[in-house]
Amino acid sequence: MQPQASEKVGIAKEKLGVFISTYGCQMNVNDTERMFTLLEMSNYVPVTSPEQASLIIINSCSVREKPVHKVHSEVGRYRKLKAVNKSLKIGVTGCVAQQEKKKLMDDMDLIDFVVGTDAIDELPQIVARLRESDEKQIDAKFRHQEAYQVDTLVRNPGVSTFVNITKGCDNFCTFCVVPFTRGRERSRKYSELVDDVKRLVDRGVKEVYLLGQNVNSYQSECGVNFAHLLKGIALETDIERIRYTTSHPKDFNQELVDIMQEYREKICEYIHLPVQSGNSEVLERMNRGYTREEYIEKANMILETIPGAVLSTDIIVGFPGETEQQFEDTMSLLDEVPYESLYAFKYSARPFTKAARWEDHLSESEKSERLNRLFAKHKEIAFPMAKKYEQKTLAVLVEEVKEGRAFGRSTQNKSVHFATSEDLVGQTVKVCIEEAFPQTLRGSLVQ
Ligand code: 5AD
Ligand code: SF4
């Protein structure tokens, strides 16, 4: 008989190996950690390669590009493993699971289970049922009516830990699949969130990274909005740093900026503010809820209220019907808003979305050409912006020390490294920046 994959690498016999491959955003990274934690509580042990696993999970993303194809090709790579390891089970979670549901299993016999974005906490039971009955399992129901209770589950919290505050989105931007894959927007209870952060602090966490598709529309059951949530976490817990993503420009307001400035000791001055396009007509067709001018006004409000605030953005090029002139408006926005980082994507049609049904789609080559032009322009602007940090002293929270070098992030979300012989992990230290590179800053410790 063929040995079990897990026996080959010396995992205790009674434990089964689980391998998870993760695609997409921080939410998925956080969901993967949640799944590992839940599965560890029910007799699984994480392994680092699919060959060692009795359970393989593909935590999928469908926000851009050929997501279903990616799932199929990864599952296909496991065909040989499944042939030699009869106890191997393969499942799909995340946004593709939610979007495709049973169709995934119908199209690919290798897939044993499908778990939607609201059913992650059921994963251990689903896998147990699968092993008992050998019947394929699916749970892709939305639980819109249930309270959103997700105390952070993390096995070995690092210096910085993700904390979900909202789930889902009600904005229905015409290009975006998220409202269909993550469901209606729900917020966690304020008191549960504060207690969650307190517990993480007790476990040594120094920074919480608050997550939501649109954090600015956080609304607790007792009427606490996002600005007051930040204030509450800053005042009621001993967390050292608070970060968050993603913001929606239409919901970003002066109150939030004022609170960020007032509590800047704790709330990092880095704001990811996805603009998507620099042209108001395109923004209207995207259903974004703001014009170019309103966006620029909000960006200026942030930069004026919070000295040294750092902005980054997301841009989609080649949205259906985007003309050369409209694209030029996006290019010229880079002259008006000083984005230190830019995440730009070619428009990609997504199922269920309005824009996918429109007829004026651009060719792939046009989209690629625009994307290259945009990145080239940003490259010219971004490096001089990084240079401004040279000779400045930044507060860096050290996340790792390896072979005499420490790596961490400044409050501006800059990656910083410097030489050290001490184990500074978890400490916030002052670093004087000596040289700026396009992606990182090199400095030395200020004693
Ligand atoms: N095509 C291209 N980019 C997209 N994004 C979301 N949907 C699409 C799509 N259909 C981008 C947006 C969003 C980021 C997370 O992904 O810029 O802010
Ligand atoms: Fe998608 Fe728009 Fe919601 Fe962001 S705000 S998740 S882009 S629908």
What does the model show?
The structure is a single chain. This protein is an alpha/beta fold. The chain folds into three domains: 16-139, Rossmann fold; 160-387, tm_1862 like domain (pyruvate-formate lyase- activating enzyme, Alpha-Beta Horseshoe), CATH 3.80.30; 390-445, OB fold (Dihydrolipoamide Acetyltransferase, E2P) (Beta Barrel). It contains 15 helices and 19 strands. It has helices spanning 5-8, 26-40, 67-77, 79-84, 94-100, 102-107, 123-133, 178-181, 190-202, 226-236, 254-262, 280-286, 292-305, 324-336, 364-387, and strands spanning 16-22, 44-46, 55-60, 89-93, 113-115, 137-139, 160-164, 166-167, 186-187, 207-211, 241-245, 270-272, 310-317, 339-346, 393-402, 405-410, 415-419, 428-436, 440-445. The strands form five sheets. The chain has a six-stranded parallel beta sheet, with helices on both faces. Strand 18 and strand 19 form a beta hairpin. Helix 10 runs parallel beside helix 11 and helix 14 (324-336) runs parallel beside helix 15. The longest helix is centred in the last third of the chain and has 24 residues, at 364-387. The relative contact order is 0.07. The model is unreliable at 1-12 (pLDDT under 50). The structure holds 5'-deoxyadenosine and iron/sulfur cluster.
